[in-house]
Write a structure and sequence with these properties.
Two copies of one chain form a homodimer. Chain A is of the alpha/beta class. Chain A contains 15 helices and seven strands. Helices cover 57% and strands 11% of the residues of chain A.
C-alpha cells in the first residue's frame, strides 16, 4: 500500500502502519515524515498523568469522546503499562473502552513496553508527529508514574493534567510537593468517594504556595465513569490553551522543542558516524582498558571522538 | 580544603562536597574523579524500588544498619521524592531515620529534585562513582515509581530489590506484569498486615511464569520497622551477588555500563563541540526555519553537522 497517500487521505490503517515503521526506525518512514513535515504544528498536546488507579484512562476516554462530539479529531497515546489499552488492566475497564475504538474521530496508540523502555521522549515524539501530520486536533499522552515520566510529559505536553483520587492516603500527601509543579490542571477523579472535597481543598492550598507561574492551576472534581465534570475539564483545557497562546509560552516552548530535537538528531547522526568509523574490536579494547582501570572513562570518551574534533577545528 | 586528600583520608565532609561539586558539573570535581578513578570497582550496588508507601526507606535503613554491624561501609542514595531523606515524608519517619545519620559507617545522599529532573542515570551515576572511590562496600540506590526509574535502577544496580506491601489493592495487581521482570529479590514489607501471605503467594506464582533467567527471585516477608526479616533479605542479597559473580553476569554487566558511559560521554562532548562551533544566531535561524515549516528537523540536523562530517571523512 502507498502509506504516504494513505496518510494524506486520512486512512487509519496507513496511520497505524507508519507509526510502527517509524518505531522500528525504518528509513522509509522517516522519509515520509520528512516529506509531510510541513503538515505538522496544528495538534494540541494534552498530557494526562498521575498515580496508578486514579482513573486516568477513563478520564482520557471521556475527554476524547467529548472532543469527538464537537467534531474534533483525537489521537491517544498510552504510555502507561497499567492502562487498559496496553492490556494491563482488568477486563471491565477494557470493555468500557470499546466505545473509543469504534469512534471514527479517535485513534488510539499504545506504546506498550517499547515506549516504556525506550523512554517517553523518543517513541512518543514520533507518534505525536505522525498523528499531527495526519491531522489530529488534540493528542492525549497518558503516562503513569511518580517520577521521570511525569516530568517528561509536562515538558512535552502543551497542557498537563494531573489526575488524583481521594483515599489514596498518605502517599499522595507525600508526593504532593513534586506533583504540584507539574500540573496545569488538577483533577480529583472518583469524586463520589469519601474525602474528595478534602483532597481537592488540600491541593488547592498547596497551589497557593506555588508562585512560579502567572497561571493558577484549576482543581476540578470529576466522576469520569459517570461523565461528571468532563465539560469542566474541557473548558479548563481550552482556557489554559488560550493562556499559553496569548502569553507567547506556546510559541517559545514549541521553538525550544525544535531546537532540542535538531541538536539531538545532530548528535545521533555524529554518534552513528563514530560507531561506523570504529571497529568493534577498537571499542572493546577501550572498554577493557577502562574496566582494568588503566584509563578513566572521561579520557576514553575523548579518545574515540578525536577524528571529529579535528574536523570541527578547521 | 583539599578535597582529593580528604576523600583518600575518608573525610565525609570532603565526600559530600565532591558530590555537590560533581552535580554542579565543576571541572575540578571531574578532575579529581578522573585522578582517583583507579580506586573504583569495589562497591556493590543495590537498588531498592517499589511504589510509594511500602516502606522502602525503613527497609533501606535497617539493611544499612545490618551491614554496618558487620563492619561494612555503606552509601545510601535516595532518588525518591517521597523519601524521608529528601524531606518528602512525615516527621515520624524522619525521626526514625536519625540513627542512620549518626552511624559512622553510613553516608546518606539525597538527590532531591535535582537527580529527579536530570534523570536517574546521570546524577546517581556520579554519586555512585564518588562513593565507590571513597571506599563504600555497598551502595543502596532508593527510587520510587512505576515507570522508567524502575527500569533504570534495575539496569544500574547489581541486585534490585522490589518492595511491595499487602493491601495496596488492584494497583499492585495491575502493575505486576511489569514489576516481575525487574526484581532480583521481592520483599513484602509490612508483613504484619492482613493479606501479606496472599500477596507473597501471588508474587511467587507470577514468578513461576518468568523463565527468562536461571536466577529464581526470592520472595521475603519483612516488618522492617520491627527489624523482622532483615537478615533474610541480607542473605538473599549475598546469594544473588554470588550468583551474578559466579555466572559472569556481574563482569559483563559492568563492562556494558562502561561502554554505555564512554559512548554517552562522547555524545556529550560532541554536543558541546557542535554548540561551540555554531553561533547562537545561526542556531536560532535554523530553528526559525523549522518552526515555519520551511525545512524539516531531520534536514536541519544534517545541515548543522556538515562541518564536522567533513572532518570524519578525512
Amino acid at each position: 500500500m502507498d502509506i504516504k497517500k494513505g496518510i494524506i487521505d486520512g486512512d487509519r490503517i496507513a496511520l497505524a502502519k507508519l507509526i510502527t515503521m517509524a518505531e522500528d526506525g525504518k528509513k522509509e518512514a522517516m522519509d515520509i515524515i520528512k516529506e509531510l513535515y510541513h503538515r505538522t504544528g496544528n495538534a494540541y498536546l494534552i498530557g494526562i498523568t498521575g498515580p496508578p488507579g486514579v482513573g486516568k484512562s477513563t478520564l482520557t476516554a471521556k475527554l476524547a469522546r467529548a472532543y469527538s462530539g464537537l467534531g474534533k479529531k483525537i489521537g491517544i497515546i498510552a504510555c502507561d503499562p497499567t492502562s487498559p489499552y496496553t492490556g494491563g488492566a482488568i477486563l471491565g475497564d477494557r470493555i468500557r473502552m470499546q466505545e473509543l475504538f469504534t469512534d471514527p474521530n479517535i485513534f488510539i496508540r499504545s506504546m506498550g513496553s517499547r515506549g516504556h523502555l525506550g523512554g517517553l521522549s523518543r517513541g512518543t515524539r514520533v507518534a505525536v508527529r505522525i498523528m499531527d501530520i495526519f491531522g489530529m486536533d488534540y493528542i492525549f499522552i497518558e503516562t503513569v508514574g511518580v517520577g521521570q515520566s511525569e516530568v517528561e510529559i509536562a515538558d512535552t505536553a502543551d497542557t498537563t493534567i494531573m489526575v488524583l483520587a481521594p483515599g489514596l492516603g498518605d502517599d499522595i500527601q507525600a508526593m504532593k510537593a513534586g506533583i504540584m509543579e507539574i500540573g496545569d490542571i488538577f483533577v480529583v477523579n472518583k469524586a463520589d468517594r469519601e474525602g474528595a472535597e478534602k483532597t481537592a481543598r488540600e491541593i488547592d492550598t498547596m497551589l497557593d504556595f506555588n508562585e512560579k507561574s502567572t497561571w493558577r492551576p484549576k482543581v476540578i472534581m470529576t466522576v469520569a465513569q459517570d461523565n461528571k465534570g468532563i465539560n469542566d475539564v474541557l473548558h479548563a483545557i481550552e482556557e489554559h490553551m488560550k493562556y499559553i497562546k496569548d502569553s507567547g509560552i506556546f510559541a517559545s516552548k514549541r521553538k525550544e522543542h525544535i531546537k532540542e530535537e535538531i541538536l539531538e538528531l545532530a548528535t545521533q547522526n555524529i554518534m552513528s558516524e563514530i560507531m561506523t568509523g570504529l571497529s568493534k574490536e577498537e571499542l572493546l579494547g577501550i572498554v577493557d582498558k577502562v574496566a582494568k582501570r588503566e584509563i578513566d572513562p572521561y579520557s576514553a570518551s575523548i579518545d574515540i571522538i578525536k577524528p571529529i574534533k579535528g574536523g570541527i577545528q578547521k
